[in-house]
Amino acid sequence: MKATAPIPAPVRFYSVHERAILGTVGVVLFLVLWEGFGRGWWAELLRPLLGPQAMRFEVMPIFFSSPTRIARAAFRMFLVTGEIWKDLGWSSLEFVLGVSLAVVIGLPLGLAAGWYRRFSYAVAPFLAAMNATPQVAFLPLLVLWVGTGLAMRVLIIVLLAVLPIAINALAAVRTIDVRLVRVARSFSAGEWLLFRSIILPSAVPFLLAGMRLAVGRGMIGIVVGEIYGSAAGIGMMINQAGSRFETDSVFVGVLTIAAAGVALVELIRAVERRVEVWRPPVAT
Amino acid sequence: MKKPGRERILIGGGTLAVFLLAWELCADSGAVNPLFISSPSRVLHAGVTLIADPDFWNDVRVSASEFMFGYAAAIVIGVPLGLAMGSSRRLSYILGPFVDTLNAVPRVTLLPLLIIWFGIGIWSKVAVVFLSAVIPIVISAFAGVKTNEARFLTMARSFSASRGKIFSSIVLPGTVPYIFTGLKYAAGRALLGVVVGELYAATAGVGHMIADAGNMFQTDILFFGVFVFTATGLVVVALLDRIERRFERWRPNVGAST
């Protein structure tokens, strides 16, 4: 006789996949609950109990929409009319321009501030102040300066994304192994060689972490920049749909941005893993 | 530490002074139209005028209540939720997908929905502040519980400490630094929520004042409004640092300082 009774297969299956099962159940329950509000299932169900009061459980679709409505709207916008592609294109353009500019400005700034102590003292007050400010507060100022065109929308993304990049670049240089620098110096390496072969490689993980933050900020920038009237873009689409009470389209836009953000962050993570391969696991 | 400290203040302060002076000169000499960049003296003047203006204080009160209601609700809900998710594996499996999804969504994109749900008054802003702040708080509290020293837990268990005892004397103190990191990050997000919410649709508030000033080319008022937000951000983080130090005073000074 065996000491322990064999575990029945369903239980074993559950304990192996507990995470996936519980997660799926939670999400499905949530979606069903949501759908039920939109379609009045709960109102029907509770009518015998609550009488006319039960109608409170049927929520107008303009408030919450429902998963099926959102799916239908997504299908229409992506595949039938294809109207969302133009918006996606504009927003992507803004995002790419904005984040690239943020890298071009923030990276040298952060590296220089990390390398030259005096320079870091000079820029520290500005970095601290900018970092404490919700940078979107500059939006009306940008509108004053460059109007509501593409330039404003790119600049707000730059403003939002430049700080995480600069601050991470600064931190990257600060955490460089001093021994490596000393060795290089004692072999009379020039500044450029030092920069290329020690500073830049050690800075890469920090820079990628900064990029991940910058992506999130850039996504906010897309939406915020398009608040002030714009010809096209996901943020504009969300705003207009909201003001027309087309809740389903709003959700499609929100989920599209979220998906784009997740995809970009995962892309950077993949690069991070790739870059980390050469690094010996000891140095921190 | 002493000597570089003085150099730091000298160089930092010097650069700041040069910047302000250059700004002032640009505007006063007419090199750049002051309508676009204002100038430090004009901003100061606008500030002095605004401080005497009851309308400005009304805006401050509205923005402050949006921030405080939303942020307080985020703490009250986020910290226990994060701790609970960290303590119960099953709960974290169930709620994980929701937290991850909300984390992926830039919360300000939800503003059009929040406006539909709560109107353009203060409550839609409270909601966006809450949503902006609650996710980082939940995630950091959760991470704090997850990174507990396994040695401490093993020891407590081998002395047959109860779950409640383990929680209050090991888990909770261990999560404090994480929670505060989350709170500081969340404060920035919350402030962002206030500004975006008020730029988007509002009837009062400092963000609304900034937007109005922008529309009317009152650049000085605009800058003063931005500085109000800068000051708020600095004060909130300094305050949290202080509270954190008070909580952390008992901790022996080992390991990396944050």
> If interface size is counted as residues with C-beta under 8 Å from the partner's C-beta, which chains form the largest one?
A-B, 57 and 59 residues
Helix-strand sequence of chain A: HHHHHHHHHHHHH
Overall 3D shape of chain B: globular
Annotated CATH homologous superfamily of chain B: MetI-like
Count helical runs of chain A: 13
Multimeric status of the protein: heterodimer
* CATH class call of chain B: Mainly Alpha
Quick recap:
The complex is a heterodimer of chains A (284) and B (258). Chain A contains 13 helices and no strands.
Any overview of this molecule?
The complex is a heterodimer of chains A (284) and B (258). Chain A is mainly alpha-helical and 284 residues long. Chain A is built from 13 helices and no strands. Chain A has two domains: 1-59, no CATH class; 78-276, MetI-like fold. In chain A, helix 6 (83-115) packs parallel to helix 9 and helix 11 (191-225) runs parallel beside helix 12 (234-243). With 258 residues, chain B is mostly helical. In chain B, 39% of the residues are buried. At the A-B interface, helix 2, helix 7, helix 8, helix 11 and helix 12 of A face helix 1, helix 5, helix 6, helix 9 and helix 10 of B.
Which structural traits does this protein have?
heterodimer, A: about 280 residues, mainly alpha, MetI-like fold, 13 helices, about 80% helix, about 0% strand, B: about 260 residues
Describe the secondary-structure layout.
The complex is a heterodimer of chains A (284) and B (258).
Chain A: H1 9-16, H2 18-39, H3 41-50, H4 61-64, H5 67-80, H6 83-115, H7 117-132, H8 139-146, H9 150-174, H10 178-186, H11 191-225, H12 234-243, H13 247-276
Helix pairs in contact in A: 5-13, 6-7, 6-9, 6-11, 6-12, 8-9, 9-11, 11-12, 11-13, 12-13
Chain B: H1 2-28, H2 34-37, H3 40-51, H4 54-87, H5 89-104, H6 111-118, H7 122-146, H8 150-158, H9 163-200, H10 206-215, H11 219-248
Helix pairs in contact in B: 3-11, 4-5, 4-7, 4-9, 4-10, 6-7, 7-9, 9-10, 9-11, 10-11
